[in-house]
Design goal:
Elements lengths: L3 H21 L1 H16 L5 H36 L9 H29 L5
Helix pairs in contact: 1-2, 1-3, 1-4, 2-3, 3-4
Length: 125
């Protein structure tokens, strides 16, 4: 079993990798794999909350991303089907995507930065 210092290092590494994941995507996947692997070992410690946070944030970001992306093809399909008449309701779907992406970014960055700060201070998430 790894020591508390090791869990702290792994938690900080997971947060940093996830933050870099906003630029390249791949390191976020590495971060969530790291969190899944260490989560069971860290059970009963303050570090388990950090690994749970990384996993939850990852899956919410993935779900929100696909929900936001789903709004665009649906909108285009509705526009083509109703052309040349546009209903005001067809404009709400792209607005959903425009609303989801910034909220998702702010929410996830808040959770990641807050978790990183708390991990650096050796406090539970």
């Amino acid at each position: 079993m790894a020591g508390a210092f090791d869990f702290r290092s792994y938690a900080i590494a997971a947060y940093v990798l996830f933050l870099f994941g906003w630029m390249n995507g791949i390191s976020a996947i590495v971060a969530v794999i790291l969190a899944y692997v260490k989560r069971r070992e860290a059970a009963g410690t303050i570090w388990a909350s950090h690994f749970d946070n990384v996993v939850l944030t990852f899956w919410v970001v993935i779900a929100g991303f696909f929900l936001g992306m789903l709004s665009w093809p649906l909108t285009l399909g509705l526009w083509v089907a109703e052309w040349p008449v546009f209903w005001p309701g067809t404009f709400t779907l792209p607005l959903l995507g425009l609303l989801i992406f910034p909220l998702l970014a702010f929410w996830s960055l808040y959770r990641l930065i807050r978790g990183l700060i708390r991990a650096a201070e050796q406090r539970a998430y």
